[in-house]
Design goal:
The longest helix is centred in the C-terminal third of the chain and has 20 residues, at 195-214. The protein has helices at 3-21, 61-75, 93-106, 110-122, 134-141, 148-155, 158-174, 195-214; strands spanning 34-36, 50-56, 81-87, 181-184, 188-190. The chain is an alpha+beta fold.
Length: 215
């Protein structure tokens, strides 16, 4: 046997040992990687799904920076995970944009316009951060096939107002410290030193909840 085949056989023999010797992923640490929510409960009935909520604000620059990375991550989620954006209704302009989001959602254009709203506020600066009017919001959403009358009616509807109240109650109950925030199954508030850390910890918490369902 020549030297090369012998080396290949040796490498093949050692590869299982190398795999066994590889370090396991670091376990999540409560307080560093996540916090347990004192009053747990999902944003919406789970219906067999694992829920990931992102609490966001359109005027939040961190949310704007996070959005492309989060969108790419959310597209790859398995079918047993439900990703739900929830606008932060912290009062003032936060509430105006929360109503704006839910009006767009009621009209079926929230998902298509989501990234563009961040862009309009933070890059193009074609919309004001403060004191945005219903007409200015309607003007933005007309590019998505929604008339000003349709949008204004949705914005003022009791259904949209109720959704804002539910979003506000969820933020208070989960005690999100700011935006962006990720909450898994209404049980865990995700922490991390970077957006990458947050998504990695979210993946680990999803796996934990999946394993708990299987038991």
């Amino acid at each position: 046997m020549t030297l090369m085949p012998r080396l290949m056989l040796l490498l093949l023999a050692l590869s299982p040992l190398s795999a066994l010797a590889a370090p396991a992923p670091a376990a999540l640490v409560e307080g560093d990687d996540y916090e347990v929510i004192a009053t747990p409960g999902p944003f919406a009935p789970l219906a067999g799904k694992i829920e990931v909520v992102e609490m966001f604000g359109y005027t939040c620059p961190h949310c704007a920076h996070f959005e492309p990375q989060l969108e790419a991550w959310a597209k790859k989620l398995p079918k047993d995970v439900r990703f739900t954006p929830v606008p932060a209704a912290f009062g003032g302009p936060w509430d105006s944009f929360a109503r704006g989001y839910y009006a767009a959602d009621q009209l079926g254009v929230a998902k298509r316009s989501h990234a563009a709203m961040f862009d309009a506020l933070h890059e193009k600066r074609t919309l004001p951060m403060q004191n945005i009017s219903p007409d200015e919001l309607a003007g933005f959403y007309k590019d998505y096939g929604v008339t000003a009358e349709q949008y204004t009616a949705a914005l003022k509807s009791p259904a949209v107002e109720q959704k804002v109240i539910v979003a506000r109650d969820f933020a208070r109950r989960t005690k999100v410290p700011g935006t962006p925030a990720l909450v898994v199954n209404g049980k865990y508030l995700v922490k991390g030193d970077s957006f990458e850390d947050m998504l990695r910890n979210t993946d680990a918490l999803i796996a934990r909840e999946r394993a708990a369902k299987a038991r």
